[in-house]
TrEMBL record:
<dbReference type="InterPro" id="IPR029033">
    <property type="entry name" value="His_PPase_superfam"/>
</dbReference>
<protein>
    <submittedName>
        <fullName>Histidine phosphatase family protein</fullName>
        <ecNumber>3.1.3.-</ecNumber>
    </submittedName>
</protein>
<dbReference type="Pfam" id="PF00300">
    <property type="entry name" value="His_Phos_1"/>
</dbReference>
<dbReference type="InterPro" id="IPR013078">
    <property type="entry name" value="His_Pase_superF_clade-1"/>
</dbReference>
<dbReference type="InterPro" id="IPR050275">
    <property type="entry name" value="PGM_Phosphatase"/>
</dbReference>
<dbReference type="GO" id="GO:0016787">
    <property type="term" value="F:hydrolase activity"/>
</dbReference>
<keyword id="KW-0378">Hydrolase</keyword>
Length: 208
């Protein structure tokens, strides 16, 4: 039976001055170092081929897609955006440590949300609905290989919900420019809404 391969790739790195801050909807572009690192990865390793590229609308993702898949015309999907951290956007955990809502949010209370932001439950619901619609679309069109360029939080959340082997979100962490490949088998997907995570990407170059 036909299976569908989806490759998740986390965007390249952004300005180091933003490190440690909650950067969700802030539309930060790739840093010069981020662009250079992606080109180096693309040269030294092998990114998978694809029939279609989906990307978050934020610059750090659209720029990553353009560097890694310059001949593709990516489909931009708003709901592939990172979590909206609201008034916590641009702040560090240290700056928020005395906020009682932040403490609950950090402890995993899915009902708590940043002021003017998105709760963990709302974020998970949004990205899961989006991912299921992508999978259904791939099956309807017979598109057997695709790439999704998005954010670490999106990838970790989706793999924790749908991925086999089962693991917590933090166990699916990845560096910038790296990601995971999933195999969606229609029978398994329709029965249990799960898919097999079978490799990390990019792959070693064939010249190694």
């Amino acid at each position: 039976m036909k299976s569908y391969i989806i490759h998740f790739i986390r965007h390249g790195s952004i300005d180091d001055t933003l490190a440690g801050k909650y950067i969700g909807t802030t539309d930060a572009p790739l840093s010069d170092r981020g662009r250079m690192d992606l080109r180096k990865l693309d040269y030294e390793y092998k990114y998978p081929g694809t029939q279609v590229v989906f990307t978050s609308p934020l610059k750090r993702c659209t720029e990553t897609a353009k560097i890694l898949y310059p001949e593709q015309n990516p489909l931009v999907i708003d709901n592939l955006s990172e979590c909206n951290f609201g008034e916590w956007e641009g702040k560090t955990a240290d700056e928020l440590k005395n906020d009682p809502d932040f403490k609950k949010w950090l402890a995993g209370d899915s009902s708590v949300k940043p002021p003017r932001g998105e709760s963990n439950a709302d974020f998970t619901r949004r990205v899961c609905k989006m991912f299921e619609s992508i999978v259904e679309g791939l099956m309807k069109t017979g598109t057997t290989e695709s790439v999704i360029v998005t954010h670490g939080g999106v990838i970790m959340t989706l793999l924790a919900v749908y991925g086999l082997p089962q693991a917590k979100p933090f166990e699916w962490t990845m560096d910038n420019g790296f990601g995971y490949s999933l195999r969606v088998t229609p029978v398994l997907w329709q029965r249990d809404k799960v898919c097999e995570v079978f490799q990390t990407i990019p792959l070693p170059s064939e010249n190694d």
